[in-house]
């Protein structure tokens, strides 16, 4: 009987994990099923571009996985029972021997009144397309207010201001503008926002969102014909209903091989996983974290099933790549545990660099073995027990 591997979610992490593990094993010994709600790959790091009017290249999974042995099921995951080892879909139930959980994250209203009713999000393609439609209806001088000072907020607010100079664009951040960047990086960011005419409201915690304005903790009102909420992400709620061990933020706690610490037949990758990186610091939700996690999980599954050597590549950061519209960018260099150092790359060169990173991430998803020679291995009758593995 084939060993059944089921991968939930086909974002940057799940798509890579499915393709890579399938390339490591013989098709007559394992089945790899990838479950996703959409039939093509979504470049999530480009949703700010979609929202402002750009059309992206379609990347159908049917073409991506042709000849790989990966079976795609376009369906919605409605539940996971890790004790029965089953996955409930909107149309059927799947049984698995090994599960890779990669359902990722979604926008996080953070319990602020009015956000769900009045704000727009760009954490998903449907959300980005809804916002795109709304933006096309705005006339000159109307205000779009973006809430959330992280990478997503910065990229969207600059993209919008550049593509729609006729609008009044505002940016609301809880702390100081770019407070996670180096002094050099903060100066460049502020320079770009000033050039684009973006109004910045710093140290402003939003406590309510209405149809035409925001209210801050200080009691002030900020006008907004459209509010775009980019203030953080939350993991998919399906995990909450399982018996998997999770962190205080609901992410699945995994070991250095991306294996659940509570259920050894479950692996988690991407935004859904709580994994440690350099200096024992949790990896942040990002494409930069997700793809290396997927490589590790796929190779670990293959090694355990075939009795091969269990490798472990340290996961660490090198830089943060930020687009500031189509013509400017900021590459913030960081320590291995993601703390900014006072070294940056800016301007047009940085914009080109960021574009290459985005294209590379998409290419890596379509080519999960990263161009390396692949040696398939046979599944052994009894996978090696967990206690026999060392890192």
Automatic annotation (TrEMBL):
InterPro entries the record matches: FAD/NAD-bd_sf, FAD/NAD-binding_dom, NADH-Q_oxidoreductase
Coiled coil, from the record: none
Domain FAD/NAD(P)-binding: 4-298
BP GO annotations: aerobic electron transport chain
Cofactor dependence: FAD
Molecular function as annotated in GO: NAD(P)H dehydrogenase (quinone) activity
Pfam entry (one): Pyr_redox_2
Entry keyword set: FAD, Flavoprotein, Oxidoreductase
Family as reported in the entry's similarity comment: Belongs to the NADH dehydrogenase family.
Name by which UniProt lists this protein: Oxidoreductase
Source organism phylogeny: Bacteria, Bacillati, Actinomycetota, Actinomycetes, Propionibacteriales
